Amino acid sequence: MNSSHRIGVAQGTALFVGAVLGGGVLVLPALAAEEAGPASLVAWALLVAFCIPVASVFAALGMRYPDGGGVATYAAKAFGPGASAPVGWLFYFAVPAGVTSAAIVGGAYVADALGGGQGMTLTVAALLLLGSFASNWLGLRLSGGLQLLLVGVLAALLVVAIVVAAPDARADNLSPFAPHGWLAVGHAATLLFFAFSGWEAVSHLSGEFSDPRRQLPVVTALTIVTVAVLYLGIASTSVAVLGSDPERSEVPLTLLLERGIGDWASAVTAVAAVLLTFATTNSYIAGGSRLGAALGRDGDLPSWLAPGHQAGQTPRRSLAVLGALVAALLLAAAAADIGLDPIMSAASACFVAVYIAGLSAAVKLLRGSRLGQAGALVSLAVVLVVFWFYGAFLALPAALVIGAKLFRLAARRRRAPAPGRAPDAEPAARPADRTASP
Fold it and tell me: DSSP 3-state assignment of 197?
């Protein structure tokens, strides 16, 4: 039987923080510093600032149109029913790549602490993903409560790392500030965007709140503050203490913790990696599974996926499909020795495309709010610039959009009456289109 549970501010904030504050905090400070040197801190600061209008826009949309379809619903409201399928496919089929890359990062930290190799990395990743799927299978009452505990412990660990390492900061590590030029800051921003791409994921949870209009603004504000403090704290401490040498900062959290707890640092980092990974994958799977059920409800994916689309229910069929895709991707990564970078970049390109769709919809849907529309326009301009940095990886979102269009075309042909036969009754209005405007 499906569970029926609505989330409040505490669980909602934990799910939001878990989606945005992903495993990227373990590796991205080093990767961004290698790309742009100390100037990578500019990219971090810009993206934290970018979070404010983006998060506010998605909160406003969630308050007006609380639905498991998330950004796909917003696109349908703004541009018509035909827009929801491409947007929904972009997110739904990118979730397996996104959660797999996050799990591999967590598995790599555990393997490093235990002295294991690639086999152990993938095994730990598989176990973390299995736990996340099991948690969501049992419903939001369990996964939301567990998320709250995990995020609390995780935040405490990151704060400890910042506090114990801060006294070792050196001004010499900030010079030269931009050794690879200022264009490298743009490239660093594309890497970091993956770490800020959770807002579109939690848009699918807007219908799960007991009072979205009252709770979403509070949850969004708390998430922004928490993410800003932890991301900027870890990034700036890593650069100031460790510098930009990739050999010195490959595992920045471990090296920072060594300042205070010595040989226990690797083990504690492995624990932090497990918490981060579970928090991220738990949130993305929760949002993605609800989107799949909503797409099945609306005819944008097979109707077999629709059960569980109502708020408070568990979309187990959609969860099963995502689980199968994740298992296939993990097996492919093991068999073909696929690295982390291509999986992460492919997922990120799709998530950025979803941002473009959501922000474009917001420009139209938030016309009654000058501040909201202005925030959507500014955010959209930034996202469009970042989008083109993905180069060849743009082929994946393009393929998903084409696939969604072909699916809808085939579905319409199946519903079309045969020659000489009276047409069937008009289908009921799509739930996304019945949502009342404020």
Answer: coil
Dihedral of the alpha carbons of 319, 324, 328, 331, in degrees to the nearest 10: 90
Residue the block writes with tokens 């035909």: 82
Query: Domains in the chain and their CATH numbers?
Result: 9-415 (1.20.1740.10)
Burial (CB count within 10 angstroms: exposed 0-12, middle 13-18, buried 19+), residue 10:
middle
How many Å separate Cα 356 from the centre of its chain?
Answer: 14
Distance between CA atoms of residues 316 and 148, nearest Å? 22
Q: What token pair was written down for 238?
A: 């890593």
Please state, in angstroms and rounded to a whole number, the distance separating the CA atoms of residues 325 and 69: 20
Q: What is the pLDDT of residues 263-291, one digit of tens each?
A: 777 777 788 778 878 878 887 888 888 88
SS3 state of residue 7: strand
- Crossing angle for the helix pair 265-298 and 140-165, to the nearest 10 degrees: 140
Q: Note the pTM of the prediction, 2 decimals.
A: 0.75
In this prediction, residues 56-75 reach a mean pLDDT of: 86
What is the predicted pLDDT for the residue at 3? Answer: 44
